[in-house]
Amino acid sequence: MMFDSYHWQEALIDDAELASARSRLASGEGEGTDFLALLRSDCSVAVGVALDHYHHAETMTRFGDNNPFDPYSDEVLERARSILKSPTVLKSETGAYEDGANHSSALLVMTILVDPDAPEDRQAITSALQKASTRVSLEAAAEAAGVILSDASSLDQDLLNALADIILDESRDVWDRVRGIVALGNVTDRRAGDVLAKAARQKNPKIQLEAAIILSSRHMSTHRTAIEEITSSWPEDADYPQSLVLDALRAANTDGP
Known about the structure:
Blueprint: H1 16-27, H2 32-39, H3 44-59, H4 73-84, H5 91-94, H6 101-113, H7 119-131, H8 135-151, H9 157-167, H10 174-183, H11 190-200, H12 205-218, H13 220-231, H14 242-255
């Protein structure tokens, strides 16, 4: 299967050796030495291509494939961290698909390799959420935030606040806000439920529904009142996915407080 990158297909690499390494990886005939040559280079396009290859290879493991770049995970993580500390690059300078593609590639890797208890990763993802200027970077930052908030030994309030700012901002695009809600899908801390309950009481029906789905599956015991308020105007035989929330509420009422 041919794969070049997510964000850098039209971006050229001037260095002939790096360009050849890129071509070999894209053809499926590349080796670890080709991957490392790109990853360790000073060329933002080359590094971005390497990070995209790592993420793509990791996503293919769900189909039974091995990630051939897994032995280099530590180095990939450090490279991604360093990129997030550096300025975003402009597409006019690199030929990338969009501005900030270097951060987008780094954030995609962070969704896999982020250390939930590492302060530098928490801070980096919090900053990425606050500065995200494209859908790709926002979605990846939100996904990484969700990993941290669900898996860390303690909840990072600053990170939760950054997501809440997105979720509760009624002036933002609904797509952005839903990405923030989805990021809280596996977070069981009551403070995450508090954010979702606030979102569910807002006027936008899409936001209400997305928040209610997670509240009903993760926070029924602490936020049943909010769920009852949201669903009070729904028909009892509502279609999917509203039915998910109603079924969860009925089950909770049957089980008792």
